[in-house]
């Protein structure tokens, strides 16, 4: 049985998803007719952001917000904050690749206590509440049990053109390719974290990411028995934006591989 706050978050996400599903359909037509989809995507993003804010505000009028599209919105309750990315995986969305998600987290006194990540095309709803486990469409999730890097499928978010991380990512992918079973670039770190929680991938690396992209996913992974950490230190990945994840055996091996890439 979902708690009231989870029902509120899932309800808002489902409503926003209907708008995204329509926009995705239009966008697929735009692709076919070769029109530039950029403006359309921005509009879809903003519309989705607005629906999420309106729905969440209706149910929790005092809460504070941080969203990718609207920035920080102060509420009279500073202890509760919704952290929102209306479309994580914007480039996939823009190219009509059906791997993107709406992702919403609730932070209470600086701790993420609830998270929802939804792919409106595959209709996969990843949910987690602190202490209550992680689920996909109501099925309990557990991270994969593989213990060796050479068995692992790793989600590695490949930075886009112009990123300052390109040389580092080349070095990291080079080292990982020699040690892991396979590497996938998902294009949505929020879904990548959902896949990690679901045991679809064994580990994950993403650099230079915003807190709204990973806030819900960090809780999903923890509630599925996994771990996330900063790629390079003991710092909080929600603050550094560099996140590595896996089970208790794989995460140290993954971090060692990243260290070897940095120092090679
Ligand atoms: C995106 C991430 C993706 C990452 C991109 C980008 P956006 O977020 O989720 O995983 O590789 O660089 O930041 O912009 O779609 O919200």
Question: What is the fold's blueprint, element by element?
Answer:
Elements: H1 4-32, H2 38-59, E1 63-67, E2 71-73, E3 77-88, H3 90-94, E4 101-108, E5 111-119, E6 124-129, E7 134-136, E8 139-140, E9 153-156, H4 166-179, E10 182-184, H5 189-197, E11 203-206, H6 211-223, E12 227-230, H7 237-240, E13 243-246, H8 250-263
Parallel strand pairs: 1-3, 9-10, 9-11
Antiparallel strand pairs: 1-2, 3-4, 4-5, 5-6, 6-7, 7-8, 11-13, 12-13
Helix pairs in contact: 1-2, 4-8, 5-6
Bound molecules: L-MYO-inositol-1-phosphate.
Any key phrases for this structure?
alpha+beta, binds L-MYO-inositol-1-phosphate, globular, 8 helices, 264 residues, single chain, D-Maltodextrin-Binding Protein, domain 2, 25% strand
Report on this structure:
With 264 residues, the chain is of the alpha+beta class. The protein folds into two domains: 4-140, 2-Layer Sandwich (Fructose-1,6-Bisphosphatase, Chain A, domain 1), CATH 3.30.540.10; 149-263, D-Maltodextrin-Binding Protein, domain 2 (3-Layer(aba) Sandwich), CATH 3.40.190. It is 42% helix and 25% strand. The chain has eight helices and 13 strands. The chain has helices spanning 4-32, 38-59, 90-94, 166-179, 189-197, 211-223, 237-240, 250-263, and strands at residues 63-67, 71-73, 77-88, 101-108, 111-119, 124-129, 134-136, 139-140, 153-156, 182-184, 203-206, 227-230, 243-246. The strands form two sheets. Strands 2-1-3-4-5-6-7-8 form an eight-stranded mixed sheet, sandwiched between helices. A five-stranded mixed sheet has the order 10-9-11-13-12, sandwiched between helices. A hairpin with a 2-residue loop joins strand 7 (134-136) and strand 8. Helix 4 crosses helix 8. The model has no long low-confidence stretch (mean pLDDT 95). The chain binds L-MYO-inositol-1-phosphate (LIP). The site of L-MYO-inositol-1-phosphate has 15 residues, from strand 3 and helix 5.
């Amino acid at each position: 049985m979902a708690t009231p706050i989870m029902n509120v978050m899932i309800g808002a996400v489902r409503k926003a998803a209907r708008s995204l599903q329509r926009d995705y359909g239009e966008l697929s037509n735009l692709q076919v007719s070769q029109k530039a989809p950029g403006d359309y995507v921005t509009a879809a993003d903003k519309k989705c952001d607005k629906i999420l804010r309106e729905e969440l505000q209706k149910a929790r009028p005092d809460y504070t917000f941080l969203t990718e599209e609207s920035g920080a919105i102060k509420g009279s309750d500073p202890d509760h904050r919704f952290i929102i990315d209306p479309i994580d995986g914007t480039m996939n969305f823009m190219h009509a690749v059906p791997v993107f998600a709406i992702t919403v987290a609730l932070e209470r006194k600086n701790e993420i206590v609830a998270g929802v990540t939804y792919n409106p095309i595959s209709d996969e709803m990843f949910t987690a509440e602190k202490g209550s486990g992680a689920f996909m469409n109501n099925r309990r999730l557990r991270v994969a049990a593989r213990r060796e890097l050479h068995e692992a499928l790793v989600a590695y978010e490949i930075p886009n053109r112009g990123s300052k991380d390109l040389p580092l990512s080349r070095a990291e992918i080079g080292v990982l390719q020699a040690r892991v079973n396979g590497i996938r670039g998902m294009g949505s770190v929020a879904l990548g974290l959902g896949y990690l929680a679901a045991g679809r991938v064994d580990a994950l690396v993403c650099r230079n990411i915003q807190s709204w992209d990973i806030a819900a996913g960090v809780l999903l992974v923890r509630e599925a028995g996994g771990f996330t950490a900063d790629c390079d230190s003991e710092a909080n990945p929600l603050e550094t934006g560099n996140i590595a994840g896996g089970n208790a055996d794989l995460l140290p091996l993954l971090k060692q591989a990243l260290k070897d890439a940095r120092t090679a």
